[in-house]
Specification:
Layout (H helix, E strand, L loop, with lengths): L2 E4 L9 H11 L4 H5 L9 E4 L4 E4 L8 H5 L5 E4 L2 E4 L9 H5 L6 E2 L5 E2 L13 H4 L6 E4 L5
Antiparallel strand pairs: 1-8, 2-3, 4-5, 6-7
Protein backbone atom coordinates (compact mmCIF):
# COMPACT_ATOMS: atom_id res chain seq x y z
CA UNK A 1 0.00 0.00 0.00
CA UNK A 2 1.24 3.49 -0.78
CA UNK A 3 1.95 5.65 2.25
CA UNK A 4 3.20 9.15 3.00
CA UNK A 5 6.90 9.28 3.86
CA UNK A 6 9.06 12.24 4.84
CA UNK A 7 12.67 12.86 3.87
CA UNK A 8 13.69 14.89 6.91
CA UNK A 9 16.84 16.23 5.26
CA UNK A 10 14.67 18.04 2.69
CA UNK A 11 11.99 19.38 5.03
CA UNK A 12 12.16 23.16 5.33
CA UNK A 13 9.69 23.38 8.21
CA UNK A 14 7.56 25.75 6.11
CA UNK A 15 4.22 24.23 7.22
CA UNK A 16 2.80 24.34 3.67
CA UNK A 17 1.88 20.66 4.00
CA UNK A 18 -0.36 21.61 6.94
CA UNK A 19 -2.09 24.36 4.98
CA UNK A 20 -2.58 22.20 1.90
CA UNK A 21 -3.97 19.40 4.06
CA UNK A 22 -6.37 21.69 5.89
CA UNK A 23 -7.55 23.19 2.61
CA UNK A 24 -8.03 19.80 0.95
CA UNK A 25 -10.09 18.61 3.92
CA UNK A 26 -12.15 21.81 4.16
CA UNK A 27 -14.46 20.92 1.29
CA UNK A 28 -14.17 24.46 -0.09
CA UNK A 29 -12.90 25.44 -3.54
CA UNK A 30 -11.05 28.63 -2.54
CA UNK A 31 -8.01 28.38 -0.25
CA UNK A 32 -8.31 31.96 1.02
CA UNK A 33 -11.97 31.43 1.91
CA UNK A 34 -11.17 28.15 3.60
CA UNK A 35 -8.18 29.25 5.68
CA UNK A 36 -7.68 33.01 5.91
CA UNK A 37 -8.09 34.32 9.44
CA UNK A 38 -9.24 30.94 10.77
CA UNK A 39 -7.55 28.27 12.85
CA UNK A 40 -6.50 25.35 10.69
CA UNK A 41 -6.97 21.67 11.49
CA UNK A 42 -4.49 19.71 9.38
CA UNK A 43 -4.06 15.96 9.59
CA UNK A 44 -0.28 16.30 9.25
CA UNK A 45 1.91 18.31 11.62
CA UNK A 46 5.43 19.72 11.44
CA UNK A 47 7.66 18.94 14.41
CA UNK A 48 11.29 19.68 15.11
CA UNK A 49 13.65 22.49 16.03
CA UNK A 50 16.09 24.83 14.31
CA UNK A 51 18.37 22.01 13.14
CA UNK A 52 15.80 19.50 11.86
CA UNK A 53 12.11 19.50 11.02
CA UNK A 54 9.83 16.75 9.81
CA UNK A 55 6.19 16.08 9.13
CA UNK A 56 4.23 13.70 11.35
CA UNK A 57 1.21 11.86 10.00
CA UNK A 58 -0.51 8.51 10.36
CA UNK A 59 1.72 5.59 9.37
CA UNK A 60 -1.28 3.29 8.71
CA UNK A 61 0.30 0.59 10.86
CA UNK A 62 -0.13 -3.04 9.90
CA UNK A 63 -1.34 -3.82 13.44
CA UNK A 64 -2.78 -0.46 14.60
CA UNK A 65 -3.12 -0.06 18.35
CA UNK A 66 -5.51 2.86 17.84
CA UNK A 67 -8.07 0.48 16.32
CA UNK A 68 -7.73 -1.96 19.24
CA UNK A 69 -7.93 0.73 21.91
CA UNK A 70 -10.83 2.82 20.58
CA UNK A 71 -13.66 2.47 23.10
CA UNK A 72 -16.34 3.59 20.64
CA UNK A 73 -15.27 1.51 17.63
CA UNK A 74 -14.64 4.64 15.56
CA UNK A 75 -11.43 3.28 14.02
CA UNK A 76 -11.31 0.67 11.29
CA UNK A 77 -8.88 -0.78 8.77
CA UNK A 78 -9.76 -1.49 5.16
CA UNK A 79 -7.17 -2.41 2.55
CA UNK A 80 -4.40 -1.19 4.87
CA UNK A 81 -5.96 2.26 5.37
CA UNK A 82 -6.70 3.18 9.01
CA UNK A 83 -9.82 5.38 9.08
CA UNK A 84 -11.95 7.17 11.66
CA UNK A 85 -15.73 7.31 11.57
CA UNK A 86 -16.01 10.73 13.19
CA UNK A 87 -19.71 10.18 13.93
CA UNK A 88 -18.68 7.41 16.36
CA UNK A 89 -15.79 9.23 18.04
CA UNK A 90 -16.50 10.36 21.60
CA UNK A 91 -13.29 12.39 21.97
CA UNK A 92 -11.88 10.31 24.84
CA UNK A 93 -8.29 10.73 23.53
CA UNK A 94 -7.34 7.10 24.18
CA UNK A 95 -6.03 6.87 20.62
CA UNK A 96 -3.75 9.85 21.25
CA UNK A 97 -2.28 8.09 24.28
CA UNK A 98 -1.53 4.85 22.43
CA UNK A 99 -0.39 6.11 19.02
CA UNK A 100 3.38 5.56 18.83
CA UNK A 101 3.71 8.20 16.11
CA UNK A 102 1.76 11.13 17.57
CA UNK A 103 -0.39 11.19 14.47
CA UNK A 104 -3.80 12.05 15.94
CA UNK A 105 -5.28 15.41 16.83
CA UNK A 106 -8.60 16.90 17.81
CA UNK A 107 -10.43 18.43 14.89
CA UNK A 108 -12.57 21.52 14.70
CA UNK A 109 -15.64 19.69 16.03
CA UNK A 110 -13.86 18.15 19.04
CA UNK A 111 -13.52 14.65 17.63
CA UNK A 112 -10.35 12.97 16.47
CA UNK A 113 -8.90 13.33 13.01
CA UNK A 114 -5.90 11.81 11.27
CA UNK A 115 -4.41 11.44 7.83
CA UNK A 116 -6.51 9.21 5.61
CA UNK A 117 -4.34 9.80 2.53
CA UNK A 118 -6.88 12.20 1.04
CA UNK A 119 -9.24 9.32 0.25
CA UNK A 120 -12.27 11.24 1.53
CA UNK A 121 -11.58 14.46 -0.37
CA UNK A 122 -10.76 12.97 -3.77
CA UNK A 123 -7.33 14.56 -4.18
CA UNK A 124 -5.75 11.43 -5.63
CA UNK A 125 -2.24 12.12 -4.38
CA UNK A 126 -2.37 13.47 -0.81
CA UNK A 127 -2.45 17.27 -0.71
CA UNK A 128 0.57 17.44 1.61
CA UNK A 129 2.66 15.71 -1.06
CA UNK A 130 1.55 17.90 -3.94
CA UNK A 131 1.92 21.06 -1.82
CA UNK A 132 5.46 20.39 -0.56
CA UNK A 133 7.74 22.83 -2.40
CA UNK A 134 10.91 20.87 -1.64
CA UNK A 135 9.48 17.40 -2.36
CA UNK A 136 10.34 16.32 1.19
CA UNK A 137 7.01 14.47 1.44
CA UNK A 138 6.46 11.56 -0.91
CA UNK A 139 3.60 9.12 -1.54
CA UNK A 140 5.02 5.75 -2.46
CA UNK A 141 5.10 2.07 -1.78
CA UNK A 142 8.07 0.79 0.22
CA UNK A 143 9.01 -2.47 1.84
CA UNK A 144 7.02 -3.91 4.76
CA UNK A 145 7.01 -1.70 7.89
Amino acid sequence: MKRVYVNEEWCLGCHLCEYNCAFACSGLKDMAEALKGKPIYPRIHIEGNESISYAVSCRHCTDPICVKSCISGAFSVKDGLVSIDQSKCVGCLTCVLVCPNGALALGETGVMQKCELCTKNECGTPACVTGCPNRAIVFEERGEQ
